[in-house]
Amino acid sequence: MASDYHNAVRAFYRQTDWMFRVLGMLRGSQAMHAGLWQQARSHRAALQAIDETLLAAAQLRPGECLLDAGCGAGASANRIAEHHDGPVIGLTIVPEQAKRARRGGRARFICADYAAIPLPSASCDVVWMLESICHAPDKPALLAEVARVLRPGGRLVIADRFAARPDLTPVERAALRGWLRPWAMPDLVTVDELMTLANVAGLRVQRCDDLTISAGPSLRFLGHFARLTLPAALVLHMLRLQSDLQIAAMRGCIAQTQTLNAGLWRYYLLLFTRSESRIS
């Protein structure tokens, strides 16, 4: 099952690379994630704001090692490495992303599965997961691996999408699948469910902030972009210049906005610390 999701994630990011590159030109940044708009007046500033918010939560100190687990094309890792006096490592399962990220800055990038991190135990001070845990088919195994590479007292900081409540109806879950399936996301857990799983892995929650309103403009921008460009993409599909997966991913962007507007999911920041010993 895990290998199927690995292949699906690789295919999604390969097939949508053109879309994220166009969005990067429009937004002034190659970052592939949402931004925060409390005080930002541009997409570029909003994207920087979410990095700064996560860094402030993680309290990264000079000399500490930060692992960006699921780093995409490396925008956040390279930005952090510009100013951080310590190792910054990005991890992606997509070879093309790792190659692109290495050209973008000072961080070190590894192409590997974040559920089998090729680093020694207790070697990282901060694990950064910005819109990446959503792709994990086995979240308990992933959290156990994160706990393994974190030093005691190390921090895990997450910003991602979570189900709004555990009792979604079959119709609501079907609506979510219209977004999740083409985006290679197996499911959405609630924040309470994730905190329970993290606790079992020895990760103690320190902070849980609902950022949905602040991230809303970025989250909806992707859906508006897809809605505007889908007609042209369908013409290209008829000419065999767009794949089925590319069209499905664009429809998924629209479904993401629709399900957000319907209140089916929220966007949260979560901070955990690794305990001295794990709970079995």
Protein model, in words:
Helix content is 48%, strand content 19%. It is of the alpha/beta class. A seven-stranded mixed β-sheet has the order 3-2-1-4-5-7-6, sandwiched between helices. β4, α6 and β5 form a beta-alpha-beta unit.
What labels describe this entry?
single chain; 280 residues; alpha/beta; seven-stranded mixed β-sheet; 10 helices; 48% helix; 19% strand; globular
Which regions have little confidence, pLDDT < 50, spanning 5+ residues? none
Shape: globular
Q: Outline the biggest β-sheet.
A: 7 strands, mixed
Secondary-structure element string? HHHEHEHEEHEHHEHHE
Q: From the helix content, strand content and strand pairing, which structural class follows? A: alpha/beta
Helix percent band:
40-55%
The overall pLDDT, averaged over residues, is 93
Terminal CA distance: 25 Å
Number of helices: 10
The total of beta strands comes to 7
**Strand portion:** 15-25%
Radius of gyration: 18 Å
Oligomerization: single chain
| Major β-sheet strand ordering | 3-2-1-4-5-7-6
